[in-house]
Prior knowledge:
It contains 13 helices and twelve strands.
Amino acid sequence: xxxxxxxxxxxxxxxxxxxxxxxxxxxxxxxxxxxxxxxxxxxxxxxxxxxxxxxxxxxxxxxxxxxxxxxxxxxxxxxxxxxxxxxxxxxxxxxxxxxxxxxxxxxxxxxxxxxxxxxxxxxxxxxxxxxxxxxxxxxxxxxxxxxxxxxxxxxxxxxxxxxxxxxxxxxxxxxxxxxxxxxxxxxxxxxxxxxxxxxxxxxxxxxxxxxxxxxxxxxxxxxxxxxxxxxxxxxxxxxxxxxxxxxxxxxxxxxxxxxxxxxxxxxxxxxxxxxxxxxxxxxxxxxxxxxxxxxxxxxxx
Length: 301
């Protein structure tokens, strides 16, 4: 017998008949007429090749076949009902046992990850988080292995969703005892100093270099690293200057002897956003994690 040939409504009727052991009682439960319920019983008898319910002394009694299928039928129907229930209504992050994978760079790890992890420990202690490299958060990976990516990339793919977390701007960081004084670097000083550059991917001219080139100026980059967290270690031991996002710069000040200074040129701010695939969009756990990350980002303003 093919399942496609079975009217699943008949199984609901059978469950009611076996629970009530009465056509009239099952009819009330199903909100059907007694004749319609009796007709359903006839179809069920044909389907199973068994009488299912027979007349007893004062009521109908189930056959041996009916007794054998009563419990598994109820279990399967309960499972089908769960498929259509609103998971959000019963969702409790405290019981969530799951691993989420976020693809991002160490800018995320230094700014958003600490408060996010702290919140997860309080609100979802059984949840596990893995942070992979930003390059691993490609659209194809988001459709399979990556749950979420955070960064500046403006995804345009139709099957991806994005949400802005915050805007950030670029500032300069020097060691606390740096010879430059004040709260801002003069352009002449900025150009004369050695620069530490954080460059992701292949070498090339950065946005800051392009802005300087418009003025016919070149800066002197003496160290290029691929990680935001490696650059401050070099700055702390030299007179070099590092240009990086303000949120990260302010966090560095709390961990070491650094000063934040205004750059001598107007560097446009950037938008930091999260992105996820359509496959995760309506998942209660994923939706909860996105809301929490957005809340953490708002608290950082």
